[in-house]
Design a protein that fits this description.
Blueprint lengths: L5 E2 L5 E2 L4 H14 L7 H5 L5 H12 L10 H14 L3 H6 L6 H34 L18 H5 L14 E2 L2 H5 L7 E2 L28 H4 L2 H20 L4 H7 L1
Antiparallel strand pairs: 1-2, 3-4
The structure holds a DNA duplex.
InterPro entries: Homeodomain-like_sf (IPR009057), Myb_dom (IPR017930), Myb_TF_plants (IPR015495), SANT/Myb (IPR001005)
Protein name: Homeodomain-like protein
Pfam family, one: Myb_DNA-binding
Length: about 260
DNA sequence: AATGGGGTCAACCGCGGTCCA
DNA sequence: CTGGACCGCGGTTGACCCCAT
């Protein structure tokens, strides 16, 4: 779990912390605070570098640090914030009292990244499903929503906060209701700010407004009810884009 | 029982930002 | 303005754990 203790060229200890070291560091900081990490190890009687002390305190010894499993709410918050902020672990940690940036980062890589990638794949298959319906020329018709202006892919991707590769997994599962306050209380959420994988000529490149080819099943589309459904589907998806709450389950409910 | 491989997580490293002389 | 010291952040490493074979 931890590196075996060793010493650097300056004779400072590296690797796992002993209980004695922990006690020294804790006692010193509780007594004097940590105004200067560089001086601290010397004053506390530790053969460590200041950085190492800082990390040990921040991630482990600080009384505010919460140990133990992550709640569903915490995980949802991490995923959602990661969608918005990217790998800004310290910013994410600010929103999760008791969790350190390092701990959140580890938890992301160990658990949440996989979950996010899985949900991304599901979401993309839904997009493709819509797209295939959209491009079905066998049932051309005019959409009642044709004049509505919708966010394009260009608008979306320009808001990407970082170029980190880990952001490829930015479509992910979370409770959108917990953060966005949206009435689309869902289990899965995609942010328009995310830099998710986008296939060429995809869903994102086309506005939800469709001129003559719309998103319908053939049996409904020929009826007045079909027209109403088209309008509801398109305007609702649009609203979800604009409100940053497009989700798998909301898509499901419309399909 | 032995072992190998993936998962987990504490800790280190390097870089960039800020501050100050 | 510049350069050095310091701090904080994000990426990465590596040792231990655990489970499957």
């Amino acid at each position: 779990m931890v590196m075996a203790p060793c010493f650097d060229k300056n004779g400072r200890k590296k690797g796992a912390w002993s209980e004695e070291e922990d006690n020294k560091l804790r006692a010193y900081i509780e007594r004097n605070g940590h105004y200067n990490w560089r001086e601290l190890p010397k004053l506390a009687g530790l053969s460590r570098c200041g950085k190492s002390c800082r990390l040990r305190w921040k991630n482990y010894l600080c009384p505010d640090v919460k140990r133990g499993n992550y709640s569903k709410e915490e995980e949802d918050t991490i995923v959602s914030l990661h969608n918005k902020l990217g790998n800004k672990w310290s910013k994410i940690a600010e929103k999760l009292p008791g969790r350190s940036d390092n701990e959140i980062k580890n938890h992301w890589h160990a658990h949440l990244k996989t979950r996010a990638q899985k949900d991304q794949r599901i979401l993309m298959s839904k997009y493709e499903e819509i797209e295939s319906l959209q491009t079905d020329k066998t049932n051309p018709r005019v959409s009642p929503a044709k004049n509505i202006n919708v966010k394009s892919k260009e608008n979306i991707v320009t808001q990407v906060p970082t170029k980190s590769s880990s952001q490829l997994s930015s479509i992910s599962a979370t409770s959108s209701s917990s953060l966005s306050g949206s009435h689309y209380a869902t289990s899965t959420h995609v942010s328009p700010q995310s830099s998710c994988y986008i296939p060429e000529g995809d869903f994102w490149t086309e506005p939800f407004v469709v001129d003559n080819n719309s998103i319908y099943s053939s049996d409904i589309s020929s009826s007045p009810l079909g027209l109403v459904n088209d309008f509801i589907f398109q305007t609702s998806c649009q609203e979800m884009f604009l409100n940053d709450t497009l989700s798998l389950s909301s898509l499901d409910s419309y399909l």
